[in-house]
Amino acid sequence: MQLAKEKLRGGRQAIAQIAYDVGYEAEEAFTRAFKREFGTPPAAWRKAAQAAE
Question: Cβ(1)–Cβ(42) under 8 Å?
């Protein structure tokens, strides 16, 4: 999940591609796991992280 956070923060890669890159076959499964770990879905986390920069 740390790698996923870095990919979300650092680029414009699609969330589905990031999910695949970090080992998930389905974007939905990745989104659920990310939200369980960090409390927010990956798209919202990306938006907040980019706004903070």
Answer: no
DSSP string for 1-32: -HHHHHHHHH----HHHHHHHTT-S-HHHHHH
Q: How confident is the model at residue 11 (pLDDT cuts 50, 70, 90)?
A: confident
Domains located in the chain, CATH noted: 2-52 (1.10.10.60)
Model confidence, pTM: 0.89
Residue 48 CB burial class (10 angstroms; 0-12, 13-18, ≥19):
exposed
Tokens of 31: 């989104």
User: How far out from the chain centre does Cα 4 lie?
Assistant: 5
